[in-house]
Design a protein that fits this description.
Arc Repressor Mutant, subunit A, two-stranded antiparallel ribbon, 7 helices, about 5% strand
């Protein structure tokens, strides 16, 4: 699967947002500090997440971001696709002509694997991740060490 840093950071940042939005909009500075992700990189990611209706923003003092939908309605694949990532294993397109004028030898194998990965990520919601004990332990540790 071609999941780059962009996709991983987007999922991490949106999960952080979901874990902290009960107190109101969450600033990107707070996410940046907790997750050690560059603020400018988060701004780029959240612009895409906002355009794709994963998050909404509030301006001004006390502003920040919140999820557009409940955590049990946001899947990991929703987030990855919103930042223009792919759930494909290789560059084979859905067409039969992925290797010039013909299909490559392993096209069907990689297409099936891509479909399995997409199905897997479609089935995991933020609420499921948030309910994991290890995630909550990490959240508590991060919240104790971050000043924002």
């Amino acid at each position: 699967m071609r999941l780059t840093t962009k996709g991983r950071y987007a999922v991490t940042a949106v999960l952080d947002l979901a874990l902290h939005q009960e107190k109101g909009p969450v600033s990107l500075a707070a996410i940046s500090e907790r997750q050690c992700i560059s603020l400018s990189y988060l701004e780029q990611l959240f612009a895409k997440l906002r355009r794709n209706d994963i998050v909404s923003s509030t301006r001004g003092p006390g502003g920040g971001y919140k999820l557009t939908n409940p955590v049990d309605e946001v899947s990991v694949s929703d987030i990855i696709l919103a930042v223009d990532e792919s759930c494909k294993v290789v560059d084979c397109s859905d067409s039969d002509n992925c290797h010039g004028d013909y299909q490559c030898l392993t096209h069907d194998l990689w297409q099936e694997l891509s479909n399995e990965i997409r199905t897997f990520l479609d089935g995991i919601t933020l609420s499921e991740i948030m309910s994991q004990k290890t995630v909550n332990n990490i959240r508590e540790r991060q919240d104790e060490t971050v000043s924002i």
